[in-house]
Amino acid sequence: MIRTRVLLVDRDEPETDHRDEAAAVLRRGGLVAFATETVYGLGAVATDAQAVRGIFAAKGRPSRNPLIVHVANADQAREYAARWDGRAEMLARAFWPGPLTLIVPRTPAIPEIVTAGGPTVGLRVPAPTVARRLIERVGLPLAAPSANRSNRVSPTRAEHVLADLDGRVDLILDSGPASVGLESTVLDLASDPPRVLRPGPITASELASLLGVEVGHGPVEADPTTLASPGMLAVHYAPRTRAVRVPSRVLLPELDWPERAGLIAFEPLPLGLVPDRVARFILPDPTVAAREFYRALHDLDARGLDVIVAVEPPAEPAWDALRDRLRRATTPGV
Ligand code: TXA
Ligand code: MG
Fold first, then answer.
1. Predicted confidence (pLDDT) per residue in 220-258, tens digit
2. Which residue out of 61, 63, 67, 68 has the highest number of ligand 1 atoms within 8 Å of its CB and is therefore the one to mutate?
3. Are residues 115 and 248 in the same domain?
4. Atom number, ligand 1, closest to the C-alpha of residue 228
5. E-strand spans in 1-128?
6. Domain count, the chain
7. Ligand 2 centre from 235 Cα, in Å?
8. Ion ligand 2 — residues with CB under 5 Å?
9. Residue 198, helix vs strand vs coil
10. Claim to verify: residue 247 and residue 138 sit in the same structural domain
11. Confidence of residue 184 (pLDDT cuts 50, 70, 90)
12. Taking the complete model, does pTM exceed 0.85, yes or no?
């Protein structure tokens, strides 16, 4: 058990002394949680295998699940990529800083523990000033998975990190809620054609139209011994409360609602569709829904409900990332 410190940080003009304190913790091998635009990350110096081991221990994360490496800019990304081709360059120019992780062959400077022994590394430049100034100050890339216990709901606020990891992380930089709210799109550039391993805020069609090629989906083949991208695991990001999903709101009146229940839906609901006592989050706009989805799950999960019911979002590309996370957080309910 270590003592977790929380520092409030101005997201526009980050205090230099807070940044310096965080950089010092990282340089001596400690763990610092910081906001990215997607979710809070649990950071350690990526080139320090011992420090990275601390991430796996704090999260209770299986060692075969590789970590994303956060860099300050595309120049720094190139230093850790054994191959950086025209596609990588084009994507970095178009979408960085931003919620896109590029999987490329790694250099030996990235220890095996970061990549779960694999030959590739996931690189991204996070958008927030706080994150990029921190990486610059440390002078080394930061390995950072989402700052939650393994298989729990991802954190979009510092209080979510504290609730899950108090005593397991040295420092939390609290710069307010994450602005995007769902994890980055993971694009495998080591395969041809490139493949989206995890759908995210940047859609497959945006990537395809920039690259001028079709983009595949999912890992190349299901290998039972290593997980090509364990974010693909069926149940992941799940609340502790029993959580079920239904494909359409028309099924809601058929459910046998327990006394204490919660609901998440992505379209307005006609009056009387569910009992009044049901706590609810209605999020009809895809951008707002992405930002608020994990907060809604954290909020409902903390109430000790008997069940959380979610209605699947509309079958449109704008909802792909959210539908993916929803399916991992819930089991079919009807
Ligand atoms: O938005 C995000 O990506 C956040 C913030 C903190 O940057 N990070 C995040 O990390 O979601 P994590 O560890 O929760 O998820 C990383 C995902 C996993 O699905 C992992 O399997 C995949 O990226 N991944 C990382 N490196 C990979 C690699 N070399 N090959 C294939 N998949 C990789
Ligand atoms: Mg995660």
1. 765 444 454 544 555 567 899 999 999 999 999 999 999
2. 68
3. no
4. 31
5. 5-8, 32-35, 40-45, 68-70, 100-105, 120-124
6. 2
7. 12
8. 146
9. strand
10. no
11. very high
12. yes
